């Protein structure tokens, strides 16, 4: 349905714009001359500002949480094309609020190298194509069209070409021939056809080229970068080498590979499924309930298959979602396709209904192909699922800075507690953080408040060595002893 619409729209667009291809070349040419595109082979710039963790907001109404970039340097070679970013990040939210591996202790150096080759993913190519000069270079080569558009009372020539992912790439050129904004859409397993925008302002002359001194990037409607440029070097020698000898693809952008799902019996009719984000499946009398959806659709489908192998002949009636962060919700659409009802804290209900209904036309998943709509049920402070034999308690965590709508899941018969992002176990040799994470302290406080008798903790971010995690380990991690629990 959406695919059909996309195709029809594309045909209509070509017809409407066929007379403007010549105009587009003129508009791109004028902008390129004004911005010094032809003479600009490389650029190196430094900045300070903020980056933000996509999909890790402390609650669904908030923007993505911020991190301070103490230093930021980017080199771009437009001819190769290639790009390298080097930055140092520090904690930005005080007190810590939201995900993205908060609290960040000390300084975190990060770098990203992209050297475009035939097999470079489109989303990485966009990092160069969406720069003002990169956009104009690409538009000249890619049969761009143009139309006049007014936005916010300002007039623009909007130059458009089709990306390799079949989404439009639009560049907004202002009356001074500067590229003010570039927008497109990319596939995201949770957020669907996700808007990706770059906004450029405060243009200054830098060695004959015009360069924006303020750069903002947004994904999913909220900023992911906000940089104030402090220094620009045009056509300096830049040396961008492949990262670890492999084409320079950052690990985060590579397609996630899932190991096979494995399972372990936690009790009668209760199974732990590992091989990715940890999941618990419960065999109720008439149905299966699953806790956590996995970190992406392939993981969700593997979990569904493993649960049905362990518990044959029953529908997956409930999927219990701990919280609406992107990494804990990207498998949800697999369960929407399955027809499961999603149980989540009430803070997340409207948000999940909206996001899980977002079109996924760029990379149609199973829910998109089946045309399935989400069914989301809100949970308050506590909910109990039981068939008389099995008991599953859902509890809302109070004063939990990582996420306002976080559920933990407690199985009183098995004395098992599943938790997400309160305690993410490290190697047993790692020293506990000092001071302890406020999220871990809050988890422990909530376990005490609820008087839960926990023998085994199942962290959704399961320990790499597959060890059994105990309350003693949790209390040690926050600098307390089990006797003072
Ligand atoms: Zn989280």
Write a brief caption for the model.
By secondary structure, this protein is of the alpha+beta class. The chain is built from eleven helices and 23 strands. The chain folds into two domains: 2-253, Clam (outer membrane lipoprotein receptor (LolB), chain A); 262-484, Metallo-beta-lactamase, Chain A (4-Layer Sandwich).
Contiguous helical run count: 11
Strand content: 35-45%
- Average per-residue pLDDT, rounded, comes to 92
The largest pleated sheet is described as: 11 strands, antiparallel
- Which value, in Å, is the CA radius of gyration? 25 Å
Describe it for me?
By secondary structure, this protein is of the alpha+beta class. The chain has two domains: 2-253, outer membrane lipoprotein receptor (LolB), chain A (Clam); 262-484, Ribonuclease Z/Hydroxyacylglutathione hydrolase-like (Metallo-beta-lactamase, Chain A, 4-Layer Sandwich). Helix content is 22%, strand content 35%. It is built from eleven helices and 23 strands. The strands form three sheets. Strands 4-3-2-1-11-10-9-8-7-6-5 form an eleven-stranded antiparallel sheet, covered by helices on one side. A hairpin with a 2-residue loop joins strand 10 (209-219) and strand 11 (222-234). Helix 5 (297-310) packs across helix 7. The radius of gyration is 25 Å and the shape is elongated. The termini are far apart. The model is unreliable at 1-19 and 245-255 (pLDDT under 50). The structure holds zinc ion (ZN). Residues 99, 323, 325, 328, 402-403, 421 line the site of zinc ion.
